[in-house]
Amino acid sequence: MNSLMFHERELFVSGNAHEQCNGFRPRRWYSHGFEFSLRIPRSRSGNFYPVLLGLIRNESEERARLFNLLYTKGLTTEQIGEISDCVYGRAYSKQQVSHLACSCRDDVERWLGRSLSSHYLAVYIDATFISTRRDRQVSKEAYYTILGVLEDGSREVLTVVNHPTEGALCWKDELEALRQRGVEQIDLVVSDALQGIENAVCAAFPSAAHQFCVAHVKRQILGSVSHKDKPAVAQQLSEVFPLENNEMKSFEGYGQFITFVEKWERKYPALRRYKAERDSAYFTYMDFPAQVQRCIYTTNWIERLNRKYKRTINMRTSMPSEKSVIFLLAAVAMEQTKTTYGRRIYQFKSWKEKNKKAVEEQRKER
Questions:
Q1: Which GO terms describe its biological process (predicted)?
Q2: Radius of gyration (Cα) for the chain, nearest Å?
Q3: Same structural domain for residues 62 and 162?
C-alpha cells in the first residue's frame, strides 16, 4: 500500500510541472483485525491526495455511521466496543465509541434546524420525561416533540427540544419557533388537555383547530369510577366518542358528553370537572372527514414515538446531559422521518379539499 501511494505521487508530480515531493507523514490504520503502518506521501502544494487514503476515510466514516446507528438503537458504548472488536479486530474504549457515534452530531443539528413546509394538515405535540444529569443531580426533565402531517399525507418530526418541565408557555414558545422556520399554516393541533394549552395554540396559530386526546380523557374517567361500573361507563364512552360512521358535529358530541357527565356526577363528583367549556375540544375531530377521524382524535402517533425514545434510553441509567438526550432522541426521530413517516397515510389523501369547510367553521367559532 505504501508503494502504491508512492508511485501515485510520482505520477502526480510528473504530470504537474510546478509540483515537488515533500516527504511523508505516518498514519496507523486498523482493518479486519490487522494494524497497518502507513507512510502517506505529501506534495509541496498539499494538493496530492492518494486514492487509498480516500478509501480509508470512507471506511472510517462508514464505521462512525455504524456506531451512531447502533447507539441510537439502544446499544451502550461498551457493547458497541465489543462488537467492534469482533468485526474489525480492534476494541474501542467507551470514550472512543462515544466520540465516533457522536461524530454525526452536526448532521442531526442541521436536521433539527432545517427549514419546514409552510403548511401542515395536522400537528401532534407531546412531551416525555427522561432522567437527565444537570448540575451533578439527576432528575426527570421534559423533552418536547412536534410531529407534523404534510399535504401529501407523509409525516415528519418538526422539532425535539428540552425544557425542565412541561407547561403551556413552553409549548407556546416552541409553536411560535416553527414560524421562524417557515411554517405559516397549521389546520389542526392534537395534544393532551394540559392546563392552558388551548391558549398557547391559539396565540401561536390563531386559525388552527384544536383536538384534545380522547384516549386520555377516557382513561381518566374510567380511573375515576368503581370496577363495578367500568363496563357500563366504557360502553357509554364509546357511544359518546363515535368514529368513522359518525355524522354528528362537535357541538352535538359535546352535548352528549355533558349529558353523560350529568348522569354519573352524582355518584362520582370528580367527573364534574369535565363540564368546563374547554372540554369541547375533545370533539373537534367530528368536524373533519370521517376517514381521518381515527388518525386525529388521539395523540397515539406521537406517544408511539415516545415509546421508541424510551426503548433507546432505557438501556442507560441516566444521560450525562440534556444535549446528549436531544442528540439521541433526534437521531431516532430523524430515522423515523426518513423511513416509517415517509410513507403516505391514504386517509389524508383528500384532506385539503374536504376539510377546508371544517377549518373555516372553526375559524368563525373562534
A1: DNA transposition
A2: 28
A3: no
pLDDT in tens, 92-126: 676 766 666 666 677 888 899 999 999 999 999 99
Q: Which residue has the higher pLDDT, 216 or 94?
A: 216
**CA gap 20, 364 in Å, rounded:** 77
How far apart CA 327 and CA 330 sit, in angstroms, is 5
Give the domain extent around 224: 117-365
Q: In terms of domains, do 164 and 36 share one?
A: no
Residue 46 predicted with pLDDT over 80: no
Higher pLDDT, 48 or 295: 295
* CB distance 285 to 128 below 8 Å: no
Model pTM score: 0.75
Instruction: State mean pLDDT over 42-67.
Output: 63
**Mean pLDDT score, 34-45:** 66
Among 51, 83, 109, where does a domain finish?
109
**263 and 133 assigned to the same domain:** yes
140 and 275 belong to one structural domain: yes
